[in-house]
Amino acid sequence: xxxxxxxxxxxxxxxxxxxxxxxxxxxxxxxxxxxxxxxxxxxxxxxxxxxxx
Length: 53
Known about the structure:
Elements: H1 2-27, H2 32-52
Protein name: Spo0E like sporulation regulatory protein
InterPro entries: HLH_DNA-bd_sf, Spo0E-like, Spo0E-like_sf
Pfam families: SpoOE-like
């Protein structure tokens, strides 16, 4: 069960990375949208590493 959760979480992380890259390239890395996307990515990355322990 944990392995499935980790895989799903990693897929979400990849999508958030793509979104962050897209927003940052269109609006700028310091835009509010990019900062929000970065924050969401950080949250998911932290969750991923907690599950991996």
